[in-house]
Design a protein that fits this description.
single chain, mainly alpha, 434 Repressor (Amino-terminal Domain)
Length: about 180
């Protein structure tokens, strides 16, 4: 039996209304209805709260519904990807800040090297921004309904293309005009 049918069956068995359950777990009545009609799936926190309210084991609730298991697995993958992206962006930020500090105190480095370092710092900052923008769009898509395609919106594609174009143009400007 899928999780929606189990939730509805147990709610009715315990004589709760959808509104009462919604109030207990801080969601809307429409959300409860959507779960019970298998239009969407609850997040893991809500499943835990519902298992407590309905006095059902998580094992019984989750094992019977393959979609719910897939959703939990996708949430776990997203969490791990989020951690990796965050670490990568932190590393890029440290490098960009280090390069900016070198530029600030690099009076003896020569003008060409200072320009190269500052341009690279800007490129890294723009790259960091593009990574965060694209990942945030992907995260929002994955966290949305299962019917949505897991692709980037046109807005994110334009932002990413613009930032990548800036990175490429900056690279060629450094190579052809400032490095002797």
């Amino acid at each position: 039996m899928n999780i929606g049918a189990q939730l509805q069956q147990q709610r009715k068995k315990l004589n709760y209304t959808q509104e009462e359950i919604a109030e207990k777990i801080h969601v809307s009545r429409q959300t409860i209805s959507s779960w019970e009609n298998s239009k969407s799936l609850p997040d893991i926190t809500s499943v835990i709260l519902l298992s407590d309210i309905y006095d059902l084991s998580l094992d019984n609730l989750l094992k019977g519904d393959r979609k719910m298991i897939e959703k939990i697995e996708a949430e776990e993958k997203l969490k791990k990807a989020n951690e990796r992206i965050t670490r990568a962006c932190q590393g890029i930020s440290v490098i960009a800040i280090t390069m900016s500090v070198i530029f600030s105190f690099g009076g003896s480095l020569g003008l060409d090297l200072q320009i190269v370092i500052s341009t690279l710092a800007i490129i890294l900052a723009l790259l960091n921004l593009s990574i965060l923008t694209v990942f945030n769009e992907y995260r929002q898509t994955v966290e949305g309904t299962e019917q949505k395609k897991k692709t980037l919106s046109p807005k994110s594609r334009i932002i990413l293309a613009f930032i990548l174009a800036l990175v490429v143009i900056s690279y060629f400007v450094i190579i052809f005009f400032f490095v002797k």
